[in-house]
Amino acid sequence: MKKATALFMAITMVASLAACGGNKTSTSDASVTTDSTAAAEGTATSDAADTYTIGICQLVQHEALDAATQGFKDAVTESLGDKVSFDEQNAQGDSNTCSTIINGFVSNDVDLILANATPALQAASAGTNEIPILGTSVTEYGVALAIDDFSGTVGGNISGTSDLAPLDGQADMLAELFPDAKTVGLLYCSAEANSQYQVDTIKAYLEEKGYTCEYYAFSDSNDLSTVTTNAVSTVDVIYVPTDNTVASNTELINNICLPAGVPIIAGEEGICAGCGVATLSISYYDLGVATGKMAVKVLTGDADISTMPIEYAPNFTKKYNASICETLGISIPEDYEAIAE
After folding, report:
1. Adjacency order of strands within the sheet including 337-338
2. How does pLDDT run across 6-39, given as a tens digit for each residue?
3. Tens-digit pLDDT profile for residues 77-125
4. Of 109, 156, 115, 140, nearest in space to 291 by CA
5. What's the Rg (C-alpha) of the chain?
6. In principle, which of 96, 203, 266, 338 could form an S-S bond with 213, CB 3.0–4.6 Å?
7. Element (H, E) at 2
8. Model's pTM, two decimal places?
9. Which has the closest alpha carbon to 140: 241, 5, 249, 225?
């Protein structure tokens, strides 16, 4: 009986140990499964973190801004491929609509905002101080954002590229082509802060060269025709800066200035193609590409936007409008390049 009892107890202990061993194996398997799931979830989270949405707010549709947006998208897509998507919206020239668009981007928590043109940048700056903002087709960031003693870096969540061509070079061009002119009309939209900056700056350069300069400011496209008509009755040459309202109304301006025989020096190529005789121009597509490369660095964490200085176009080209020059009988030096028609 004692032997039987001892045998029974031994068998029971072995069974208990076997059961414990089984539970341990099961727990271990569950642990592996949980870790694998966590790893898979971690991978999914990592993949999700590598996808980006960029909100693009463009003030208005015209050749220069369109080219900048396209260059930006091409550069970003080249680097990030299908990891990036764009929410592209156009404000149709209305700064209030820019604010509405930006507020939508903020609500949707986009990863980065491209603000194409000054009013779009101003709306973005007012709309968020957290989402990274890159401006493009913005002439002077200090003026656009009311920064005193602007040093070239905005700081905070804003950087970008400038479309400012050398204003002293544009003054030199006007003097080269029209040395006998006496009065220059400065035609611009007073609602665009960067346009005011440009005409104020070039006025000083032109006055140093002996020209008399007169301001011809219009508030919007509604009074553009009247102001332009007044200008051609008084001046010998007109200068128009890089101005979005002018860029959207070049046909109207040309229909007034060309019959009057008054030539226009333009701040950028798109305006010159529509109503100007010559310009010292940049490539807006290349400017957009430069902005896109900045965006990639910000999104991937390779750069801190708060320390990124504003970038400028590296090259400037003297260009002329062959058709208008021929109509007005203007001879163009050999170092100018004809604008493609």
Report:
1. 212-218, 183-189, 237-240, 264-266, 278-281, 317-320, 337-338
2. 444 444 443 443 444 444 333 333 333 333 333 3
3. 999 999 999 999 999 999 999 999 999 999 999 999 999 999 999 999 9
4. 115
5. 31
6. 203
7. helix 2-49
8. 0.78
9. 241
